[in-house]
Amino acid sequence: MRFLGRSRRAAERAPQPPEPPAAPAGPPPALVIDALGRKCPIPIIMLAERIREVPVGEIVAVLADDVAARTDVPAWCRMKSQEFVREEALQQGWAFHIRRSY
Amino acid sequence: MGSDVRTAETAPSERVYLDAASGEPPHPAARAALLDALDSGWADPARLYGAARSSRMLLDRARAQVASVLGVRPDEVSFTASGTQAVHLAVLGALRARRRTGRHLVVSAVEHSSVLHAAESHEADGGEVTVVGVDRHGRVDPDEFAAALRPDTALACLQSANHEVGTVQPVAEAAAACRAAGVPLMVDAAQSVGRVDVPGGWSLLAASAHKWGGPPGVGVLVVRKGTRWRSPLPQDERERRRVPGFENVPGAVAAAAALTAVRAEMSAEAPRLSELIGRIRDRVPRTIEDVQVVGDPERRLPHLVTFSCLYVPGEALLTELDRLGFAVSSGSSCTADTLRPSHVLEAMGVITHGNVRVSLPRGARAADVDRFLQVLPDAVARLRRAAGASVE
Description:
heterodimer, A: alpha+beta, Translation Initiation Factor IF3, four-stranded mixed β-sheet, 3 helices, 25% helix, 24% strand, B: alpha/beta, Aspartate Aminotransferase, domain 2, seven-stranded mixed β-sheet, 14% strand
């Protein structure tokens, strides 16, 4: 089990994300949004504003290192009926791949 | 300005408290009982002179009152220094007593932090913990909970209802499964006691007086007859060796008075508050775009609702609502001392930002809820404009 609580100290103690998979699966993103260093909800706002820049069916990647994004990006996709493709661990933070579905 | 009415509305005297899940304002019965017991219940209830006897009688009566509301025997009830202490004692004491059976503990993913921190300390001590997940409504699947029980399971913990989203958990089903497996069930009933009756069948229960209008610094630990329990703390004679330290007799008396009073009011008050919560659940998604009301729409606490507004920082929304005269709470991160989002919202897989928890205290007025619903859409719109402007 891994309950870190919500304190600043617990967040600092948080283990690093697991090693990225050897070969990233799926097509490359058509657009990469760099939200590293930005707190939620900023990564979600950037995603919502810019997803229409890619054609329907293409992939947008959001780079973020606020741990809340790991919950918020897939939850946003469900709410907005966009397709959450996958999460990729980066050296710092994660890349979230989303396919524009409409 | 023409804002006389508005000024009156936002004046401090008109502040509306909608955060009962953090702490219910003291019930008038608690206040009267506390003042009375400060004078009559200060002496050491363990001694043999007159003033001590009167303290002991007050404490025993308080215990009997709490036992009666919870449907248990008085000698199964102990008063603790807080709800958190009751949880810690219940979890660690049950684990300790069943050490020879095994060191496996089952908890749900959405338990209060006091349960999860106790589980964490059990794990650090060499124990094993299984965390049972929840669905999108934050509800534990009773079959999944039952499947987590093993021959070496020493204890299982399930909250009566979730403190952040109000979802009521399948306690009766979990208790039946635990009984069949010979595993004691600990129920954290902090959010339910005084609001709704908790189903029976469990072995240990923890609750907190300030959640039902009693004073702070009083918790309740119930250990049912036949449940093995051994204090995880150094020996102490107080509270049948279950809780160390000099008893807070005035606090216990006030807690019992408040509980008796709210239980008597419950059959009228719970449906009234539930209707107001239904109003919020219904109106918020209709008047604000991109909002998700979270938690089970049917199997929920009567007085609590949580919703998340996309693209709004939760902290900013709380500050804005406070400015408008409404005290509410949030499970969002980015508050001063928090970097992680709520583990409850995380476990449910729902939006963690822009989160607002409204929990109605006893006597909450319909007019105040309506006014809250009236000011909320503009507040959210303002913050969305501000947040959008900060993105280049």
